[in-house]
Amino acid sequence: MIIAVDGPAASGKGTIAKALARHYGLPHLDTGLLYRAVALTVRRLDLDPAREADAVAACDFDDALLADPALRSDEIGQLASIVSAHPLVRAALLQRQKRFARQDGGAVLDGRDIGSVIAPDADAKLFVKATPQIRAQRRHKELQAHGSPVSFDKVLADIRARDARDSGRSTAPLVMAPDAALLDTSFLSIEASVQKAVALVDARRAKAAE
Ligand code: CDP
Ligand code: CDP
């Protein structure tokens, strides 16, 4: 069973994908981490994120980087959305994600283009959303907990900029796949969001088994 979870920043897709993986006993891949690792490599090697060749060179990162706490910063999130707009960067990371999705027994992946590009044949697709204000509150709280002094207004502005960039790019933009189920977490607790996600996935599977 392949479960695709897409949505904008801080919509709750990672939390939901992780919980679905636990619920169904499937491995989980947070694909945003791959783009964040490219961004962090660009930053550390002092490359130019706007230059496609520079960003492609950074795709050859060491997997140990995927556990680096520096990936979580707001700055790296922004840089990730700049490098991820390059078609050759997306191409460089494509097979790794497809392989993960197609492994025996299935998988849960979360990102922006899982239902549309990485696993268009997924058994269940969720599109997770929440208002920009609520997403900014969530992300701000998280960043504060990690000791970041970034202001709420900056986080909200960054989220809006990232939404625009991720939705506006020509290669694999953030879109809701036509066969995805919409899950608005704006006014749902984490527990309620996960319950709803499980119900939506079960409904898809029941329908497919008919
Ligand atoms: O957790 P959050 O939603 O803030 O970000 P993320 O999922 O770690 O993704 C960081 C950036 O990587 C996004 O803003 C996208 O530009 C890019 N990304 C992408 O293009 N495609 C994906 N499948 C996942 C992330
Ligand atoms: O993966 P994505 O960036 O979409 O979001 P996330 O990392 O799953 O969630 C962002 C933050 O919102 C985390 O701190 C979650 O605990 C929190 N969250 C929440 O407060 N309420 C929800 N219904 C879902 C997530």
TrEMBL record:
It catalyses: dCMP + ATP = dCDP + ADP; CMP + ATP = CDP + ADP. Keywords: ATP-binding, Cytoplasm, Kinase, Nucleotide-binding, Transferase. Signal peptide: none annotated. Its EC number is 2.7.4.25. It is found in: Cytoplasm. Residues 3-201 form the Cytidylate kinase domain. This is Cytidylate kinase. The gene is cmk.
